[in-house]
Design goal:
The protein is of the alpha+beta class. It has 2 domains: about 70 residues, GMP Synthetase, Chain A, domain 3; about 70 residues, Roll (SH3 type barrels). Helices cover about 25% and strands about 40% of the residues. The chain contains 4 helices and 8 strands; from the N terminus they run αββααβαβββββ. A 5-stranded antiparallel sheet has the order 7-6-5-4-8. A 3-stranded mixed sheet has the order 1-2-3, with helices on one face. The longest helix has 14 residues. The radius of gyration is 23 Å and the shape is elongated. The N and C termini lie far apart (about 65 Å).
Length: about 170
C-alpha cells in the first residue's frame, strides 16, 4: 500500500459461548429448564438448545427465552441470528441433566467398540451410568444361550452414546 492509501479494517466478532451462558442461565433455570448446548457459527448464527427439568420444552419457553436473549444482546451491535430449541428426541444425551431426567426410562445405548442395546437407565453418577438390560449368555448345563437380566455400571469412557428409546 502507498503512503496515501486508506487503511480499511474489517472486524468480525463472534459471540462468546460463556457470555451467552452467563446472560441466559438464570432465566433458563427460572423456567424449569437447563442448557444442553450452545452453538455459535462464524457468522454469529446462534443455536441455544435447552431441556426441561420435569416435562417438555414449550413454544412459550422458546419465545420467552428468545425475548430475554434479545434484551441482553443488541442485534445491531452483535449482528446475530438466534434459534432457541429443545433437545431432539433422537439426539444423544450431552449433559448430566439429560441423564438424570431419563433415570427409570428405556434408552438406546451404543458402546465404544460397536455394541448396541436397549436398557433401562437405573442410575447416573459423575463417572457413568448403571443400566439394566437383557443379554443372551451361555449357562452351564445348557446347550443354548439363555436370556438373563443384567444390571451393570458403564464408565462414560466406555459409552459412545445414550439416547431416549422411542416407541411408535
Amino acid at each position: 500500500m502507498g503512503a496515501g492509501s486508506p487503511l480499511i479494517l474489517c472486524q468480525t466478532t463472534t459471540m462468546v459461548i460463556t457470555e451467552i451462558k452467563d446472560a441466559m442461565e438464570e432465566a433458563i433455570v427460572a423456567r424449569g429448564c437447563f442448557i444442553v448446548d450452545i452453538k455459535v457459527s462464524k457468522d454469529n448464527d446462534i443455536e441455544l438448545t435447552i431441556e426441561s427439568e420435569n416435562s417438555t420444552v414449550t413454544l412459550d419457553d422458546c419465545v420467552e427465552l428468545s425475548r430475554i436473549f434479545e434484551s441482553h444482546f443488541d442485534r445491531e451491535q452483535e449482528d446475530y441470528s438466534l434459534t432457541v430449541t429443545s433437545a431432539g428426541l433422537d439426539c444423544p444425551f450431552k449433559v448430566h441433566g439429560q441423564f438424570l431426567k431419563a433415570v427409570g426410562t428405556e434408552v438406546e445405548v451404543s458402546l465404544k467398540g460397536g455394541k448396541r442395546f436397549n436398557a433401562v437407565l437405573t442410575s447416573v453418577s459423575e463417572n457413568g451410568v448403571t443400566l439394566k438390560y437383557e443379554a443372551m449368555e451361555t449357562v452351564e448345563g445348557r446347550k443354548r444361550k439363555v436370556k438373563v437380566q443384567k444390571e451393570e455400571f458403564f464408565d462414560f469412557g466406555e459409552v459412545n452414546a445414550v439416547r431416549p428409546h422411542i416407541v411408535f
